[in-house]
Amino acid sequence: MSSPTNLLIRHAQIILPNGETMIGDVLIRDRLIVEVSPVISSAPTTEAITEVDADGLTLLPGVIDPQVHFREPGLEYKENLFSASCACAKGGVTSFLEMPNTRPLTANQEALDDKLHRASQKSLVNYGFFIGATGDNLTELLAANPTPGIKIFMGSMHGALLMDDEAKLEAIFAEGKRLIAVHAEDQARINQRRQEFAGIHDPAIHSQIQDNEAALLATKLALKLSKKYQRRLHILHMSTAEEAELLRQDKPSWVTAEVTPQHLVLNIDAYKTIGTLAQMNPPLRSHHDNEVLWQALRDGVIDFIATDHAPHTLEEKAQTYPNSPSGMPGVETSLAVMLTAAMEGKCTVAQVVNWMSTAVARAYGIPNKGAIAPGYDADLVLVDLQNYSPVLQEELLTKCGWSPFAGWNLTGWAKTTIVGGQIVYAEGKVNTEVRGQALKFE
Q1: Which residues touch 36 (CB under 8 Å, ≥6 apart)?
Q2: Cβ-contact 12, 23 below 8 angstroms
Q3: What is the per-residue pLDDT for 45?
Q4: pLDDT along the chain (442 residues), means of 10
Q5: Can you give the C-alpha Rg of the chain in angstroms?
Q6: How far is the CA of 96 from the CAs of 18, 161, 199, 231, 356, in angstroms?
Q7: What pLDDT is recorded for position 3?
Q8: 308: annotated active-site residue
Q9: pTM to 2 decimals?
Q10: In contact, 337 and 294? CB cutoff 8 Å
Q11: How far from 49 is each of 30, 341, 414, 418, CA to CA, in Å?
Q12: Which of 65, 164, 186, 308 is catalytic?
């Protein structure tokens, strides 16, 4: 494994913590940012230092992706911690929070420790792992450490992780103070509509089966329980206009929400062009939902961005609906998708920084992440906002080898990604000697 290197980044357009930009230099020593200045004098000749010329590039805090499914252990044929972290490095993602629906489930300390050990050996970027609620593991949920929180699947899941019983949900909300993150879809409504639309093989029916009402019902229930117990709640991958308007009217200070890039820029029209590759949970919605979600994000009703990176093989996705699995990859393209939207005027680059890094670190209590300032960890990404290039599937590093954005012409691609002061991606190549560190949660 490579050792930390002292770095001096020169002539970058730096996005500062206040959202303003400055052309300047950043000095990194021992994994930390030690100076940010318009000009930093050369280091003493006795100090080994690597200079990075960032002229024409923009320096951002590294992306923290707070919802991914990296499939290890048990489903490594789809993805694994090494392949996924290589994709992260290429996409400017320097930290991730991974979900518990692996095999075995991450539902106790032993499984959590196993993932942490695997990541320490394999992950090129920083990592954290949720613990999953099963309905009979309350003791483990309260004791597990370190973890960003408890993941509850209220719907769109089967087996032990499906938590569609209100009494069992309430028992979890009633105990402890740990953050609860919910996949909010009402399973009873989904089951009813699956029967109603049985025999239809057009994948577009997926958005009708798991409709806006199914999402709204579950979000209302999660909010009710959160308010009853003053329990820290995070709503994962919010997808509907109705949920956004609900939060606009009634969002306690201890509740946060996220949205995925695909729920902002894709909608049900995508089924016509990419078929089952557009199938995910919760499903893609209408153009109207896109617009309302964008406005809620800009207004702070929705707090930040996550990819819900959930890869499946092309062979799996080629199955006829409903046998085709739901989910799509995203860590490699998320930053470029959002920065392209910024260049189109939908938001600012500073807002993208907040949504993809600063606000995530704040919400999950991750110290020293999410800003370019002295004392912060040197997790950074240099992006090119001057040039556009297409998403080419043959160049993707995710093991599944496909993207719903194939062929899209995007800007803001990562040119250099730095994790803990070490260059993990540059000039189109991944440095596989770098290893990330386990994230801490305050």
Answers
A1: 14, 16, 22, 24, 25, 26, 27, 372, 373, 374
A2: yes
A3: 54
A4: 79 97 97 97 72 97 98 98 98 98 98 98 98 96 97 91 95 96 98 97 98 98 98 98 98 98 98 98 98 98 98 98 98 98 98 98 98 98 98 98 98 98 97 98 94
A5: 21
A6: 24, 21, 38, 24, 11
A7: 60
A8: yes
A9: 0.97
A10: no
A11: 11, 36, 22, 15
A12: 308
Residue identified by tokens 């964008």 is 294
The alpha carbon of 228 is separated from its chain's Cα centroid by a whole number of angstroms, namely 28
CA neighbor of 132 nearest in space, from 170, 103, 161: 161
- Which of 10, 6, 7 is CA-nearest to residue 39? 10
What length is written for the chain? 442
325 cis-preceded (ω within 30 degrees of 0): no
How far from chain centre, in Å, is Cα 393?
Answer: 20
